[in-house]
Automatic annotation (TrEMBL):
This is BROMI protein. The gene is Tbc1d32_0. It comes from Phaetusa simplex (large-billed tern). Residues 173-707 form the BROMI middle region domain. It comes from the Eukaryota. Residues 12-138 form the BROMI N-terminal domain. Pfam families: BROMI, BROMI_N.
Length: 707
């Protein structure tokens, strides 16, 4: 606070006096945030210069940076609602925005952080004020010299003096003494006492001191102390620092922890292997996971603040992380494939690589991350690609042998499984982490520039197209089982679901889709359970101009060959086979109508345009859909018409409901032919014109969306 003016110091002093008084009169223990709010409101009402103080401006900036986006978002929502007549009056708007802001996650986190900081700072202030007032001369003999050399300065006659260095929590001499006591060569009792002092000292004093570089070295070494209680206290100091200090200070604490872990994994002391599994209830492993978890929590929080600091600070955090994750155990100059590396522990705690998603979200940090990956840590990308290839080969081998693949995304049922992981489960967790990381990487042009990659055990390099083909193959080869309560809960971790999420994001990104998806090679013949997923991706591709062009003509219209027809021909022929029930593998399937509807929708995305319809006319798709509708219409006539909504849910069987839904799907498909003049003529030729009009009128009457 050295940049604050004397008026700011006076304001702070006034606040502290009132806060101390409130603590004595109202609170037993630490003061509350509400108490501080009351004091600030009182000062605002009584001091006309309140808003000009640098301290108040700092608080305003802090609040704006933390919950400003929430306030703006809620204000926009309310303004929009106000324009539509749903919200009226300025007071109502302010009340609503205030209420929503107070209920937000960001506000709760801000208040929690402020409360933690206040509890530490005010508790220390109370102790120092009481010591000064009581003129307590019975200080510890080890700190007497420091006190006499200026710990309490002469210009501090009483608690009404200006808020200056009189109340610095620890002097440079004390901090230097603390560094000496924490040296690993000191006796255990001395170090225990020193770490206790460290825990009660404000992190800002520690990190701003001249002794911090040496102290940082001692703390990094002490994290490996065999005394669990001792290392746990240091870890608590790290956690407190992360939650109460700015990024320019916490980055050094983070890199200290990352360096400690890197040294530990490279040391002879560490000997964990993938094949042996992992028992997380083991004390040593539990301590290791706590350290990695603290790193991961910081990884996910740091991006919200590092943009306000020099890039080199962020680069230190990024590089220390990538360096840690690149650790490999080498035995006789060869990397051991059974080594349980740091990335496995991170994957256990952050299986979907949320940390990487946050680091690459903003261009400011994405540039640094991808530059370092390209220049120094490309082995991380290679390892992720290799992990996906290994899992695919594992699944493929199991399918070829007609054996059931263990679905590790659903294996957390028994108590034993909650506290231990087999080698196969660890490999699966790392596979999911790798898949999510690669999916995020390919969204950005800088990320795609990292490809192709060369793997050690593969002669040819792996291109982006190779990787996308691998992703689509994973949909088919990954295990699928009947839906249960458990599988519904864990389906988001299945390979098929993860790949679908990635491909859907690609479809929504124009540049990414053109470079990744719009390739002839990205194609796969799939069976029943994956057809719906494939149809969804094809429909998304066909929804945009470049994607539609790919399906109709291939990558290059001029070089299209007869022996390699464009995708449209394969899709429409397959759709006709579905409509004619001409695929024996799918006969009798309960979800066959859903599969049919999904592929009809793909064709619909094409025949809604003139050029797409021109390509489909020779196949007579409109006739096939019309015939299917006529057959279904005859069946639907036997279904009793529901009089009320209750009849619809009670008297009609599930099979009858499905018939009615299938008939509507076919009518909607026929109706879409009317998007073009020639398509309208084809619709008329099916004899379903009147029924389509009735369907459209009925849907509009019910306010159901129709094309």
């Amino acid at each position: 606070m050295s940049h604050f003016t004397s008026e700011d110091e006076a304001l702070l002093q006034s606040m502290l006096r009132q806060l101390l008084q409130s603590v004595k009169e109202k609170i037993t223990g630490a003061p509350s945030v509400e108490c501080a709010e009351e004091i600030l409101l009182h000062l605002e009402e009584t001091d006309e210069n309140f808003h000009n103080y640098e301290f108040v401006k700092y608080l305003r900036r802090y609040i704006n940076n933390t919950v400003g986006s929430v306030i703006e978002e809620e204000t926009e929502k309310c303004t929009s609602a106000q324009n539509q007549g749903e919200v009226s009056g300025y007071d109502t708007l302010v009340q609503h925005v205030t209420k929503k802001t107070r209920e937000s996650k960001e506000y709760r986190e801000m208040m929690h952080a402020l409360k933690n900081v206040m509890m530490v700072v005010v508790e220390s202030l109370i102790n120092k004020f009481e010591e000064d007032r009581m003129h307590n001369k019975e200080l510890d003999s080890k700190t007497k010299k420091e006190r006499q050399s200026g710990y309490y300065t002469d210009n501090c006659s009483d608690s009404d003096s200006s808020f200056n260095q009189s109340y610095t929590f620890m002097s440079q001499e004390q901090l230097q003494l603390l560094v000496e006591r924490l040296d690993p060569i000191q006796p255990k009792e001395v170090r225990q006492e020193a770490v206790q002092t460290l825990c009660f000292a404000p992190p800002s004093d520690i990190l701003n001191s001249e002794s911090w570089p040496n102290l940082r070295k001692h703390l990094t070494m002490s994290l490996s102390d065999p005394d669990a209680t001792f290392s746990e206290k240091i870890l608590r100091f790290y956690a407190k620092t992360f939650s109460s200090s700015p990024f320019n200070m916490t980055r050094e604490v983070y890199t200290s922890l990352a360096k400690h872990l890197e040294l530990y994994f490279l040391s002879g002391e560490y000997s964990l292997r993938i094949s042996a599994g992992l028992d997380v209830s083991n004390t040593d492993i539990n301590r290791l996971l706590k350290k990695v978890r603290l790193l991961n929590e910081y990884q996910k929080e740091a991006p919200s603040s590092w943009i306000r600091h020099p890039e080199k600070y962020m680069e230190e955090v990024v590089e220390s992380t990538l360096s840690l994750l690149s650790v490999k155990h080498e035995s006789n100059h060869a990397v051991s494939p059974d080594f349980l590396s740091p990335v496995y522990f991170l994957a256990l705690l952050d299986i979907k690589a949320v940390w990487f998603k946050k680091w690459t979200h903003a261009y400011y940090s994405r540039t640094v991350v991808l530059r370092l990956l390209e220049k120094k840590y490309k082995s991380l990308i290679n390892a992720a690609v290799q992990q996906c290839l290994d899992y695919f080969e594992f699944c493929k081998a199991a399918v070829n042998k007609n054996s059931r693949v263990g679905d590790f995304s659903q294996q957390h049922c028994s108590d034993k499984q909650k506290f231990s992981y087999t080698g196969s489960e660890l490999q699966y967790v790392y596979f999911v982490h790798s898949l999510c990381l690669l999916g995020r990487l390919l969204i950005y042009k800088q990320g795609r520039n990292l490809f192709p990659v060369q793997l050690k055990n593969k002669k040819d390099s792996v291109s982006i197209t190779d990787l996308l083909v691998l992703f689509t193959q994973l949909i088919y080869y990954s295990p699928r089982y009947p839906k249960t309560a458990l599988t519904m809960h864990t389906d988001s971790y299945s390979p098929a679901s993860l790949v679908m999420e990635i491909l859907q994001v690609f479809c929504d990104q124009t540049g990414c889709a053109a470079e990744c998806l719009y390739k002839d090679a990205v194609y796969i013949n799939c069976l029943e359970t994956t057809l719906i997923d494939v149809a969804d991706i094809l429909a998304r591709i066909a929804a945009v101009e470049d994607g539609l062009s790919l399906l109709l003509y291939g990558e290059n219209e001029k070089t299209a060959r007869e022996d390699s027809p464009a995708a449209v021909h394969v899709i429409v022929q397959f759709t006709k086979k579905l409509l004619h029930d001409d695929i024996s593998l799918l006969s009798g399937s309960e979800i066959l109508p859903v599969v049919k509807g999904a592929f009809i929708f793909v064709c619909r995305q094409m025949y809604r345009t003139c050029e797409g319809l021109q390509m489909l006319i020779p196949y007579g798709l409109h006739e096939s859909i019309g015939e299917a509708w006529k057959k279904t219409s005859l069946l639907s006539e036997r279904v009793p018409t529901p009089v009320t909504a209750m009849d619809l849910t009670s008297s009609i069987s599930l099979g009858s409901k499905n018939i009615l839904l299938w008939e509507e799907t076919l009518l909607d498909a026929l109706l879409n032919f009317s998007a073009t003049p020639k398509g309208l003529f084809l619709l008329h030729s099916t004899g379903a014109m009147n029924d389509c009009v009735n369907y459209m009128f009925s849907s509009l009457s019910k306010k159901i969306q129709v094309s």
